[in-house]
Write a structure and sequence with these properties.
- The structure holds two protein chains of two kinds.
- By secondary structure, chain A is an alpha/beta fold.
- In chain A, 53% of the residues lie in helices and 11% in strands.
- Chain B is an alpha/beta fold.
- Chain B has 21 helices and seven strands.
- Chain B is flat, with a radius of gyration of 26 Å.
- The chains are: A alpha/beta, B alpha/beta.
- Chains A and B meet through helix 1, helix 6, helix 10 and helix 13 of A and helix 2, helix 7, helix 9 and helix 10 of B.
Chain lengths: 369, 443
């Protein structure tokens, strides 16, 4: 049923809906913090009451439609490319066949690898499926089996509700390689927290990339968050220190620290991160309360290497996976969750502010298989 | 860069080489490993399948089984097939047409278009062209500022785009402005977009129609996974790209995307981004790259880097001095400055054949600061001391150490190294390059 829904929607709506998203991107971003509490609770009704600005009326029809499909619908839509690989293809695999044979298994292996699950995860998954092969007859069975096995791999990545830190403000350090979407993620996180009534401060500790500070400042304005900046090229640790100091003075609830993108193999740059972390700890002993690594879903198996090295070097407490909407390859989520045993806090499935959604393994599996 | 892939393949080949005679089973086992290595390196599944089939057909043919060194024969076939896939030779950026010509940079969000635009203008300026940067990304906050700042850093003029303007109009107006500014090459930095986003892909097509660019480069992240083929295909179908820039190649990405993109679109990879600095853009040479994948080193790139960094007159002077064994500490310092212009020592060492594999190098970070210290010590000497090191006695050593913030031991070591280099040069001049092997870099 759900699959049919998806198929019907996929062909017609994708282009126009994404255009609608494009045109209303600016407005939606600015407005949602002021609106009612956004998607956090994954509550359908919250989505329906999403404010629609008069300005976006031209694109309004699609928007209403989109809002109606609600949280789950949007997750599906965002993940539609991944779904295409797994769902529809699994139906095709069985074309005219009843039994699960070697040819089907080989095809399945190909689908899994091209979905960026990675060789090792695919092999592990295939082994489990093969063991159950005798009990599988028909696509529904196979889907159920895959669903179950993938879920067992990623269920450990379910984020726990954040403990209330002993100290205020709560500090979140955001890390990642270049171009994964750290700044945008911070903008979205800030808007989300602000809409929940938290007082948010953003620290522009990416002092390296040209105009990174300006970019973040625009996001801060949109989210209605306080903003602390230094000059280009300043010591990022100093920016972090000043922001924490300011946050304490202004009695903020949350500090989001942006860092410059860096490849995980650059020893000096990793050392810089450690210094930022140490500096934050000087002001608030148990901070940063979280260090989130942002990963780009278009990345292939290198995402694993990124997660491993960042974790070894700086110690991360959780992951954010961005750009899941454009790619056929949500598979890297499975691969990373399976090997890292770190909670995956958010997944980004679109450009709008509430397209950064809390990760839920069950829903994710339901959406992709 | 391609280290992990070459590591894996080297491991596979070692196993194969051990066999005096190969059976079909040996070959298949070996190829299974090759397959895994390529898949783990994010080469697209279909591309791997084809590649393995081609290699297998040849490897199981008579040429291998009958040969005396079957293992090596297989290695050779893998190398040849990989080279075939990567394309024959380097293809340069296409800048034909009436000036000003335009180069369009397209790609996904975060692939590195803006940075590449900056790097490319540095690269083109070295070739005597006058670049003009055009920010056409009106969507991402502060994207225009970013390019403006980059332009300032490298003193390249930037078109003052406004975030409210239409990208197509920006590009057209920039063309006229470029002519006024006396520039001959426009670099159009477009907004990042998903290849499945039809509305934004349409915008690119309109820009292409309006400015008729000589070159369209797809900027792709070297870490891209299996989706690389879809991305490349979508951009190629919409725009008929001229080539690819592979960014972020300085990480530990296995670079499989390079192979996939090439295999699927047939479009050459023209440049690779190899670092954070704006000079870190290299022309891509497929034939060198496949030997790099297989761990055979890349001397050609190193020589090219040296040529770009050293100006000829100084080199000629230096040669004269070397011939006469008059290589002073001053020359030593100049030499060092030039080596540093070529890039980081770690990068340079990786290009030396065999070095990429050397275990002790794997985790070694060459201490770039050491060079700074040596420079400081030489700077703390008097001109007399630099010209004639023999006069540097104990008290002079103490002074130099103090002046440069080092210990006397450091000064001693420097002088010892220097005298060794001098001995080597003298030996060389007497004939025979044999003395060279050890300690080419006398630090």
């Amino acid at each position: 049923m759900a699959i049919r829904w998806f198929k019907k929607n996929k062909s017609g709506d994708d282009a126009s809906a994404s255009r609608a998203g494009e045109e209303s991107r600016e407005n939606a971003d600015v407005d949602s913090p002021k609106g009612p509490p956004a998607a956090a609770g994954s509550d359908d009704s919250a989505q329906e009451s999403e404010p629609i600005e008069p300005k976006t009326c031209a694109a309004g029809d699609q928007q209403i439609e989109e809002s109606k499909s609600g949280f789950f619908g949007r997750l599906r839509k965002g993940l539609s490319k991944t779904r295409e690989i797994l769902t529809t293809d699994i139906d095709d695999l069985f074309l005219g066949k009843k039994e699960l044979d070697a040819a089907i298994l080989e095809e399945l292996e190909e689908r899994l690898i091209t979905a960026d699950l990675g060789v090792q995860t695919t092999m592990a998954l295939m082994e489990k499926i093969s063991k159950r092969a005798r009990k599988i007859s028909g696509p529904q069975d196979l889907k159920a089996a895959i669903k179950e096995e993938i879920l067992s791999m990623i269920v450990g990545a379910k984020p726990h509700p954040p403990e209330k830190p002993a100290s205020r403000p709560r500090v979140i350090l955001v890390l990642g390689v270049n171009g994964v979407g750290k700044t945008t993620t911070i903008g979205k996180l800030a808007a989300r927290a602000a809409s929940e009534g938290q007082k948010v401060l953003i620290a522009a500790a990416d002092t390296f990339r040209a105009a990174a500070i300006e970019q973040l400042e625009i996001w801060a304005k949109r989210a209605g968050a306080d903003f602390v900046r230094h000059k280009d090229g300043a010591d990022p640790a100093a920016v972090a220190f000043d922001s924490i100091e300011a946050a304490i003075a202004r009695d903020m609830d949350l500090v989001l620290v942006d860092t410059a993108g860096r490849l995980h193999t650059k020893v000096n740059l990793m050392a810089e991160l450690k210094k930022i972390k140490r500096t934050i700890g000087k002001k608030i002993p148990d901070a940063p309360h979280e260090s989130l690594l942002v990963l780009d879903a278009t990345t292939g198996q290198n995402a694993l290497s990124q997660a491993k090295l960042f974790h070894e070097e700086v110690g991360i407490t959780g992951l954010v996976m961005t750009k899941l909407d454009g790619t056929a390859k949500g598979g890297v989520v499975v691969s990373v969750c399976n090997s890292m045993q770190l909670p995956l806090h958010y997944i980004g499935v679109g450009e709008k502010i509430d397209d950064l959604q809390p990760f839920d393994p069950e829903q994710y599996v339901d959406a992709i298989v | 860069m391609f280290e992990s892939l070459s590591d894996r393949l080297t491991g596979v080949f070692k196993k194969l080489k051990g066999h005096g005679k190969l059976t079909e089973k040996n070959v298949e086992e070996g190829l299974r490993e090759v397959r895994m290595a390529l898949l783990e390196a994010d080469v697209h599944y279909k591309v791997v399948k084809q590649l393995i089939a081609d290699i297998k057909a040849r490897a199981l043919g008579q040429e291998v089984l009958a040969s005396l060194t079957p293992g090596q024969q297989v290695v050779k076939i893998v190398n040849e097939e990989l080279t075939k896939l990567m394309g024959a030779e380097h293809q340069d950026i296409d800048l034909k047409g009436a000036a000003p010509v335009s180069v369009m940079l397209v790609g996904l969000q975060g692939s590195g278009k803006t940075t590449t635009a900056g790097k490319l203008s540095v690269f083109l300026r070295k070739q005597g062209r006058k670049p003009y940067l055009v920010p056409a990304d009106v969507y991402r906050p502060a994207a225009i500022d970013q390019l403006k700042k980059l332009g300032e850093q490298i003193s390249v003029p930037v078109f003052p785009s406004s975030a409210e303007a239409d990208p197509v109009k920006i590009c057209l107006e920039a063309r006229t402005q470029a002519q006024v500014a006396g520039c001959d090459t426009l670099l159009l930095d477009t907004a990042g977009r998903l290849h499945v986003d039809e509305a934004l892909m349409g915008e690119l097509e309109r820009i292409k129609k309006a400015v008729n660019p000589s070159e369209i480069l797809l900027v792709a992240d070297a870490m891209t996974g299996q989706d690389a083929v879809n991305i490349a295909e979508a951009f190629n179908d919409a725009l008929e790209i001229g080539g690819v820039v592979l960014s972020k190649m300085d990480g530990d990405a296995r670079g499989g995307a390079a192979i996939s993109i090439r295999a699927v679109t047939g479009k050459p990879i023209k440049f690779v981004g190899t670092g954070e600095k704006l000079a870190d853009l290299e022309a891509f040479h497929p034939e060198r790259m496949s030997s790099r994948i297989l761990g055979m080193g890349d001397m050609l790139t190193m020589i090219e880097k040296a040529q770009a960094a050293v100006d000829e007159k100084t080199a000629a002077d230096l040669e004269k001095k070397l011939r006469k064994s008059q290589f002073t500490l001053e020359d030593f310092r100049d030499q060092m400055v030039q080596v540093r212009k070529m890039g980081s020592l770690t990068d340079l060492l990786k290009m030396v054949p065999g070095m990429g594999q050397a275990k002790q190098l794997k985790n070694m970070q060459v201490d770039e600061k050491e060079l700074v210290r040596i420079e400081a010590m030489i700077n703390s000497m008097t001109p007399q001391e630099r010209r004639n090191h023999a006069i540097i006695n104990g008290s002079r050593r103490r002074r130099i150490a103090k002046g440069s913030g080092n210990s006397v031991q450091d000064v001693n070591r420097l002088l010892k190294n220097y005298t060794q280099v001098m001995k080597m040069i003298k030996k060389m001049n007497k004939g025979g390059v044999r003395g060279l092997g050890r300690g080419m870099l006398p630090m």
